[in-house]
Amino acid sequence: MSEAEEKKIAMEMERKLRNEEKAKEKEMKKQRALEKAKLGDVFKSSKPKTIAEKKIDKEEEEEFVDPETPLGERKKLSSQMPKQYKPSAVEKSWYEYWETSEFFKADSTSSKPQFVIVLPPPNVTGALHIGHALTCAVQDTLIRWKRMSGFNALWVPGFDHAGIATQVVVEKHLSRETGMTRHDFGREEFLNHVWQWTESKSGTIKSQLRRMGSSLDWSRECFTMDEQRSKAVTEAFVRLYEEGLIYRDLRLVNWDCFLGTAISDREVEYIDIKERTTIKVPGYEKPVEFGLINSFAYPLERGGGEVVVATTRVETMFGDTAIAVHPDDARYKHLHGEFAVHPFNGRKLPIICDEILVDPNFGTGCVKITPAHDIHDFKVGKRHSLEFINVFTDDGRINANGGPEFIGMPRFAAREAVVEALRKKGLYRGEKNNEMRIGVCSRSNDVAEPMIKPQWYVSCSVMAKEALDVAANGEIQFIPNQYSAEWRRWLENICDWCISRQLWWGHRIPAWYATLEEDQLKEAGAYSDHWVVARNEEEAQKEAADKFAGKKLLELSQDPDVLDTWFSSGLFPLSVLGWPDETEDLKAFYPTSVLETGHDILFFWVARMVMLGMKVGGGDVPFRKVFLHPMIRDAHGRKMSKSLGNGIDPLEVINGVTLAGLHARLEEGNLDPKELVVAKEGQVKDFPNGIPECGADALRFALVSYTAQSDKINMDVLRVVGYRQWCNKLWNAVRFALMKLGEGYAPPVKTLSPETMPFSCQWILSVLNKAISKTVDSLNAFELSDAANTVYAWWQYQFCDVFIEAIKPYFAADNQSRIHAQDALWVCLETGLRLLHPFMPFITEELWQRLPSSQDCERKASIMICDYPSSIEKWTNEKVETEMDMVLGTVKTLRALRAAESLERRRNERLQAFALCENALTLGIVQSHELEIRTLANLSSFEVMLKGEDKGAQSGSAVVETVNENLKVYLKLDGAAINAEAEAEKIRNKIIEIQKQKEKLQKVMGVSGYEEKVPANIKEDNSRKLTKLIEELRSLNNQLFSETSMKL
């Protein structure tokens, strides 16, 4: 086809388009007039509508409303697409259809490559929070992508019994409801209440997961306390014990006096205190003072002298068993080997030398040693074989070691009493402010107390070395890689793991204590060598009979303690697949592919899974990659908490909630009245109008797009609202496209060949191809934010903003170009929806189901089981993309001119424009795409000329702008006054701006060592930038000369 013929077709299409638009406008005016007349008639007559009229209205309305869909069936869609996107309507019914159709189910016998993720089991303490929503959004994106990419994809759902957290929540609930404690109920009845709570809350969590579109294989659902997982826990404990990796020892632990249990380091949060501060502690009516250090004297055994020590926990002095000095401290050399005397019990305290603990320049240089209540003193006690004396009961009161004057006192009440008693004895030497850290239990808010207790421990050094080795040799990869250093830091400094918890809810420790007739002490646990470990009581009886052969066994009692929750969680990748049994799932799906979780539990969970998995799972790692996502904070960067009122329930974002609804959620919780007031104030500040309905798709997309934010996400609900609005734009773009395709449209069966298609169609397929490649590359690299932004950018800036507008002229004519435009449009819709589906499953399913399908091939039942897009080599066309860049640059410049203040009144008019090209190459490109420029810039005409060929076209009023060094565009303004000075001033300002950029770049390139130190690619890039800036300056100066010459 010749250039003249192409131009003739373009002009004909343009003419038909104008006629079509005029006809539409005329019809709309006519329709509005009729509606107005009808409305007037209604008001005049005041007659109610007839039954027939009401029936017609209802039928018209029903065209846009989805019919009711029976549960689990494919969603029944309305005959007409609603004009507005409504998340609750769009996201209805699809999940039940996917689940019933078993699209989520993996096949252990499949020959496809496996891709396996285990959902980090949420605690059954309550509902999921926004952090869980991030986990679901990321993992479901990965699993849907892999499923569509031909993998046998398995995503295993599970729930964690969360021993201490669940027990605390249920205890609070029962206390509030009945006024009774767990001890009032007794262990068995209390555990029945916990099971009821668990079943209720797990149901809530499952409904939340489904509402978020999580494509989990529910046929493999598990719970850390179910029969199979409990079997795995017992088996692991027994095997580790038999290998000598689990042992019982008397050691220092973090003790929660309020809950009466040991707690993990993970459950201790630290408060930094600068000076005297009061803190509310559970069980005490008035706040307790911290941030003080007390000094007092210990009298020497002989010589009548004294040594002064200082402590922040004076109540522990009943457990002091030595006083330490530095061996080189001249002040105390004469006291080496001497004794001080305890003022309350007369205990002799040896004065020992310890250069590791004691800093002679700090305080008095004398340190009281309490081995049973301080981690540093514990080590000193071990080094010097000191006595370990515990002075507290399990509920935090002074025990018999405190003497009759103090026995039974709560520890912080005893603190005041001891100070007063020291004063009376003349031994108190004063107090002063002291900067310190207080460890507080995250579950109870009690101040953690270091206490010596007999507990079960896992020996970790050998397993930690294996975990370090697999990370070093690449068997496990960390994403982002920065966490490799943290992995080494944790594991190189690992301590043995205390796995005993003094709770009722959890896996009972499979150890039994044998009480023998010959034992002098009949108390359970009195002798460390009387324990047997077994899988059940019957097996324990046999073990005890063998171990204590010839001795009379009086009683065999199981340890009342339970295991640390992290022990069962650490086995999760194995146990969810059926271990210790040799199941088909274990053979097919272990090791798993990716462990995705928050970076805050890298050690507490990830490291323990690797250590336990390798030890009991056959030596292989439990997963190949560890993908760690950021932690969510509120919009102000604060940690989310119930007490601040800034926590976000994902369903409140999905469904929307009023401010009153947010308040109601707080009132149903366990906050005390003061905390409730603060939390409500926080909600009023952050969500004054509540949260609008956003839908699951918008929430998921927002969360995934946030993942590029280092190690923290500042979550702003307004961003989710923005993506919900984008869903509406996507909805309307597809709605418009479907109208253009028409009812009788038949999609192409074969892959499109762009070379015969119009320029805009070639371009959209080329940039779609590029978007596909970049999205897949980003997903493979776990750069989910980049992948989401790539898909978004293609839909928003290329498909919606450019392509849909550019192809409108083709629909004005009934020829091959129209068919090409329709085919390209359909391929973009179908491919683009598949590209977007892992991120936004609901809206993409609904829109994809509305697309016309080919009659010659069977349509898949769901978009989620379609193939994920892959790039098609013949679609890529760099030349077309380069030319479209010039077209879009021209359009952008013309739009900027139109938006100028001087043209405010004519913004919506079709204006005339022309382009002035510096060379024949630019002339050829712009001329060949005159139709696209005219359409996208909304021009009535667009002439293209070579510089110097037609001066006459420049006559009359016009505004000018430079597109690039080879192209300027002019917007004609016949009859309009142009302020030449204002236009010249705009150019001068641009010259100043470009000059500054040029000077800044020249300064960078002129620094000492630039040529030697800067990489070649950066130097080349800077040189290109400088050349471009110089050319822009030259062009702007020429433009300024032209403007001032015209003025003269």
Overview of the structural elements:
This protein has 1048 residues and is of the alpha/beta class. Helices cover 45% and strands 16% of the residues. The strands form 12 sheets. The chain has a 4-stranded antiparallel beta sheet with strand order 6-5-18-20. The protein has a 4-stranded mixed beta sheet with strand order 13-14-12-15, with helices on one face. The protein has a 4-stranded mixed beta sheet with strand order 31-30-33-32, sandwiched between helices. α12 crosses α18 (602-616), α22 crosses α23 and α24 (759-780) crosses α28.
Low-confidence stretches: 28-47
Physical arrangement of strands within the biggest beta sheet: 6-5-18-20
Helix content: 40-55%
Let me know the largest β-sheet: 4 strands, antiparallel
Strand content: 15-25%
Number of distinct beta strands: 33
Number of helices: 33
Shape: elongated
Coarse structural class: alpha/beta
Q: Specify Rg, calculated over alpha carbons.
A: 38 Å
Q: How far from one another are the termini?
A: 47 Å
Q: Report the mean per-residue pLDDT as an integer.
A: 89
